Amino acid sequence: MSKTSRSAESNRQSAICNPQLGKRVLLLFTTTGYNAGDFLRAAAKLGVEVILGTDRCHILEDPWGDDAIPLRFAEIRTSVQTILRHVRKKPVSAIIAVGDKPTLTAALACQALGLPHNPPQAAAACRNKFVARQLLQRAGLAVPGFGCYSIHSDFNEIAGKIRYPCVLKPLSLSASQGVIRADSPDEFIDAFRRISRLLKLPEIRATREKTLDQILVEDYIEGREVALEGILEEGRLKVLALFDKPDPLEGPFFEETLYVTPSRLGRDTQRRVQNCCQRASWALGLRHGPIHAEARVNAQGVWIIEVAARSIGGLCSRTLRFGTGMSLEELILRQALGMSIPSYQREKTAAGVMMIPIPRAGFLRETKGVRKALMLEGIREVVITAKPGQKLVPLPDGASYLGFIFARASSPAKVENLLRSAHRKLRFDITPELPVV
Questions:
Q1: The predicted structure's pLDDT at residue 32
Q2: Using an 8 Å Cβ cutoff, are 163 and 246 in contact?
């Protein structure tokens, strides 16, 4: 077992076995959730007992040896009933969803247990791009023109009626998977066919999402893209960080790479972004817990791209520290459990993360240059999450990254330069066929 694995196991055992004042939390996450381990480490620091609920194997009896509750987040009502049966024996003080898929299950379970939560209809709206667009438009927020179509529709007819450029987004997927810009009817037809093929893949169909056959088509919005990390208290938004996304996200695919904070937008523009995110949270009906919002800013104003009822994805939260070193996960746990929060103030040092993009399809054979990247002053961590032998699928067909690079420096510009320099030092040996071991 590696040093990292031993540390994670130690944190897990500590979090599960050393409860503080009887506080216990149920953590819901999918098998693809990167940051569940960061929540476990935060729980261990607080001495909070953790029960795990995940969509791993539901046939074998506890194959991971961690007493995780086996769930199927696409089967929401069944998952809620499973949770309620388990917590009768071990009552919990809070339920936290990691990632998008468990959010509705968490909201319904919290409602049944009388725990602080978002209204289930709000959690459901955040997971449906079409419903979210309708609610935001109804609230008077700036949204692109949009429509929703079945993959079985006559795409030739649709292509002749919409405005260009446009963006096609499958309702059931996240992390920019399947999101494609089209600048003409021919490009629209190609994109529609490509997304339709993606949504018919067995691994996608296995999710059993109700919106599997739906594609949102909306006007393309120019401008700089930003991400806001916040937390809601009785509907009031506390802004924790505003990230710039320095790379131009203009398509045809929308692979996010860099997040840098604090934002370099002017103060007035930042206030407009924050105000729009607050209004969007109200429009969607969100009341409690973390949110991750994304917006575009141009001469016409602030356009809300999405608001998710969960914290930032992947390992990106490692860019954030509050007060004297509190992680985002610790802050979320403290709020969920009704514990005191020493400070909502982010550290003053500029910070950022690069989600390392997959350059081409194939199988990862080897990663080189990590040590060289770590030698750069200000690079704090390089985490390669892709494993040797793993099949790599770039966007828009895939939904993952090779790993993460973290940096801290005296200014956002220096952080951005550091991340790009560190990335240039990495080399990924990707072969078209599975390496022979």
A1: 63
A2: no
3-state DSSP call for residue 288? coil
Identity of the residue numbered 166: C
Q: What is the DSSP letter of 80?
A: H
Q: What is the pLDDT of residues 44-90, one digit of tens each?
A: 999 999 999 998 654 434 434 457 899 999 899 999 999 999 999 99
For the record, the structure tokens of 351 come out as: 């910070």
pTM summary value? 0.90
Alpha-carbon distance 157 to 378, whole Å?
53
What is the DSSP secondary structure assignment for residue 273, as one 8-state letter?
Answer: H
Q: What is the DSSP annotation of 327-365? A: EHHHHHHHHHTT---S--PBPSSEEEEEEE---SSEEEE
Residues 239 and 290: beta-carbon distance below 8 Å: no
- What's the token pair of residue 51? 């029960």
Q: Where are the alpha helices (DSSP H) in 114-211?
A: 120-126, 129-138, 155-159, 185-199, 202-205
3-state secondary structure of 46: helix
Q: What percentage of the chain's residues is helix, strand, coil (to nearest 5)?
A: 30, 25, 40
Query: Domain boundary at 193, 219, 245, which?
Result: 219
Number of domains composing the chain: 3
Is residue 109 included in any domain, yes or no?
Answer: yes
Residue 199 and residue 111 share a domain? no
> Quick count: other Cβ atoms within 10 Å of Cβ 219?
15
Distance (Å, whole) CA 119 – CA 105: 11
> Do 89 and 174 sit in the same domain of this protein?
no
Q: Can you give the pLDDT at residue 55?
A: 86
The closest alpha carbon to 399, from 283, 293, 314, belongs to 314
Residue with tokens 């802004």: 239
HSE-up (13 A, CA, CB side) for residue 423:
21
| 415 in a structural domain | yes
Q: Domain range holding 376?
A: 350-437
For residue 23, how many other CB atoms are within 10 A of its CB?
Answer: 19
Q: Is 183 inside a domain boundary?
A: yes
Determine the Cα–Cα distance for residues 190 and 194; give it in Å rounded to an integer. 6
Q: DSSP state, 290?
A: E
* Dist CA 280 CA 135 (whole Å): 9
**What's the whole-number average pLDDT of the chain?**
91
In this prediction, the residues of the chain whose per-residue pLDDT falls under 70 are 1-22, 32-33, 56-66, 435-437
Which position has the token pair 């021919």?
Answer: 186
